[in-house]
Specification:
Number of strands: 26
Number of helices: 22
Shape: globular
Largest sheet: 6 strands, parallel
RNA sequence: GGCGAUGUAGCUCAGCAGGUUAGAGCAUACGGCUCAUAUCCGUAGUGUCCGGGGUUCAAGUCCCUGCAUCGCCA
């Protein structure tokens, strides 16, 4: 059996965040799982590097597009190993091989007659650099730039997507698993119930040069989606080769819901047109919110995977995202949530049970795995063993369905049972009387064997923790390399195996509960009932508490560009790095010229709700001090830091 | 405006195709153990299953309607 699993190729206009990490962890874990099932697996991720936004971003940084994308692509590539993500192939749409294949595909589709040249006229907004639909306009103007769009006619190439609409509808209906979870399948079908328009697949070179030239007309480059989707094929050496034959028929794509349409509609019709079978499954997941709100650059609450790994460790991060999110639905990320998962599931349950079991084998049998005495086997023992069989089934079914949270819940059911088993069998009691030795040995064996199986099933999700468990259990290479089917079989641990001392798999994290700090003198009030309801300190007028202060996120930002806002004599539009790029409009035009601002470091409120000022949306606020001089003149001075520091540094 | 999803214990959610006292984890309270990472085990709960109608012997589970939130489309 073979498995081909892909993530989207990530658009290099931003650095990796939790959402990217999630898609990639999912694909990696699924790939590892399939490998553990004995499949030959190919796992691909990469970066998407063409298009208008990239060209703009590069220009904004005074870099050539290629220099710019090289940097961000490397950041993605470098992030994955820190999350124990091991793709077999990392593809870039600027790879020469990819470019050639895209051109071959275009030519093929063109020759088939599915691409035509046509004039398109529409309302083009220079600010957005794209055509707007009538419906998007507000009072006839672009809602973002408040300017009237130009009616322009442009000639472009179009892909006859509409030719394949009926075929696609049928295909989706006949293959219930083609798009999962179902809610997204419904969404696509509902979208397809309306006539499909053809897809514009070119951009004139006059407007954009950063793209793949059309093979049949050099005055145009390829629209990014047409270019990007093909990565899934080029990564396999399409149009020929063993990889393509082995893996394409089993292709499974993991995506987030924002790119559903290109993957569920553009891509299958493109494949159909070029004469390639559609992919097997498309797995669509939801968004990670951060503490109830959307994660976005402008709010400044973007979660960086590297920071998470530093704070919690790779295994915890992988476990958390897979356990916490029901695949397909949105979830919310919060430090309390991940700390709670780490402490309760990983440290208290799995980590602790691992530690206590190994310790007992050391204390009561010198660290060697003792033999089972069939004569003293109880119903309860058999129940535990049976439960492991049930877990195995649920686990596999859930992993196959991308229901990772359910797979993990099933594993933790066994962790819970093992803890109960320890308590009801109390080896420390058995050890007191030599007459109980056969039973003690049997119990200890069950502990060791259950741990071995737990180490095996968590391997795809937490490869590190799994390896540490196997290490302590001193499993042979043979036992470590078993497939699931062969490995989740009772009784494989050999009697006499000498175990190592237990490692602390997941050290507990201290909760940052500042709320519980009580300042009341110990016996100020009479004993009796505990006063559970700690009085909240009375609010004092004009005084905020520390928690309120923490809500304000201050950051150092570097000004990279500044220009006056038209028709506003007080406003200057600033482009800042903090560390990501953002726009902030500041009412400082009377005091500073745009020229003198560029290069300055300022302090901004980074998590202020975005607000529109004279047509520009401001994502934050620049801090400044203001005074009125004795002669009645106003003076304003920007707040800054006393020495150079990395853009985006927090101020507190 | 059209289509769709969701609304269940303080929190996060399970409840598959209608059937006895509605479940799990976390959090809370009390009790127990000592092998263990101040961990674990047991007990205790509380729920107008969003509101209102209806179908049925029987509805959290089906139908209609209203409200709220979200998504897609226009």
């Amino acid at each position: 059996m073979t498995t081909y699993i892909t993530t989207p190729i990530y658009y290099v206009n931003a650095l990796p965040h939790l959402g990217h990490a999630y898609s990639t962890i999912v694909a990696d874990s699924y790939g590892r799982y399939k490998k553990l099932c004995g499949d030959q697996v190919r796992f691909q991720t990469g970066t998407d590097e063409h298009g208008e936004k990239i060209a703009q971003a590069a220009e904004g940084k005074n870099l050539s597009p290629k220099e710019y994308v090289d940097g961000i692509s490397a950041a993605f590539r470098g992030t994955w190993p820190t999350l124990a993500i091991e793709p077999d192939n990392f593809i870039r749409t600027t790879d020469p091989g990819h470019i050639k294949t895209v051109q071959d595909v275009l030519q093929k589709v063109y020759d088939k007659g599915d691409i035509y040249f046509s004039e398109y006229s529409g309302l083009y907004c220079k600010g957005c650099e794209r055509f707007l639909t009538e419906k998007e306009l507000v009072d006839g103007k672009c809602p973002d730039h408040l300017t009237a769009p130009d009616e322009i006619a442009e000639q472009n190439y179009f892909f006859r997507m509409s030719n394949y609409q009926d075929w696609l509808i049928n295909h989706i209906k006949e293959n219930p698993e083609f798009i999962t979870p179902q809610r997204y399948r419904n969404e696509v079908l509902s979208f397809l119930s309306e006539p499909l328009e053809d897809l514009c697949i070119s951009r004139p070179v006059s407007r954009l040069t950063w793209g793949i030239p059309l093979p049949f007309d050099e005055k145009f480059v390829t629209y990014v989606w047409f270019d990007a989707l093909i990565n899934y094929l080029t990564g396999l050496g399409y149009p020929e080769g063993q990889d393509f034959e082995n893996f394409w028929p089993v292709a499974e794509h993991v995506i987030a819901k924002d790119i559903l349409k290109p993957h569920a509609i553009f891509w299958p019709t493109m494949l159909k047109s070029m004469g390639v079978e559609p992919y097997k499954r498309l797995h669509v997941h939801g968004y990670w919110n951060v503490d109830e709100t959307k994660m976005s650059k402008s709010i400044g609450n973007v979660v960086r995977p590297a920071e998470l790994v530093d704070a919690y460790g790779v295994d915890t991060v992988r476990y958390f995202v897979l356990r916490e999110m029901s695949f397909g639905l949105d979830s919310s990320f919060g430090t309390e949530a991940i700390t709670a998962r780490h402490n309760s599931d990983l440290a208290n349950d799995l980590g602790n049970v691992f530690s206590r079991c190994l310790t007992m084998i050391h204390k009561y049998n010198g660290g060697g795995v003792p033999a089972v005495d069939e004569a003293v086997l109880t119903d309860e023992d058999r129940e535990l063993i049976d439960a492991i069989g049930v877990m195995h089934e649920t686990y596999c079914r859930s992993m196959d369905e991308f229901a990772f949270h359910r797979a993990l819940a099933a594993v933790w059911e066994i962790v819970g049972r093992l803890n109960k088993f320890v308590v009801t069998n109390a080896p420390w009691e058995l050890a007191k009387d030599p007459a109980n030795t056969p039973r003690l040995h049997t119990v200890l064996y069950i502990l060791a064997e259950t741990l071995r199986i737990l180490a095996l099933v968590i391997k795809p999700i937490m490869p590190g923790a799994s390896a540490r468990m196997e290490e302590c259990l001193t499993l042979s290479d043979e036992l470590r390399s078993l497939t699931l089917d062969k490995g989740v079989v009772w009784g494989l641990t050999s009697v006499g195996t000498a175990l190592s001392k237990p490692a602390q798999l997941f050290p507990r994290l201290e909760k940052k509960k500042k709320k519980k700090q009580v300042q009341q003198p110990a016996n100020a009030e009479g004993s009796g009932k505990k006063k559970k309801q700690e009085k909240k300190s009375e609010p004092v007028e004009g005084v905020i508490d520390f928690a309120d202060f923490l809500k304000v996120e201050l950051r150092v930002a570097k000004i990279t560009a500044a220009e006056k806002v038209k028709k506003a004599d007080k406003l200057i539009k600033l482009t800042l790095l903090a560390p990501e790029e953002r726009t902030v409009v500041a009412g400082i035009a009377k005091f500073y010229t745009p020229e003198e601002l560029v290069g300055k470091q300022v302090i901004i409120v980074a998590n202020l709700q975005p607000r529109k000022l004279m047509g520009e949306t401001s994502h934050g606020m620049v801090l400044a001090a203001k005074e009125t001089t004795p002669d009645g003149e106003e003076r304003l001075v920007l707040s800054t830091v006393s020495d150079a520091i990395a853009p985006g540094s927090k101020v507190s």
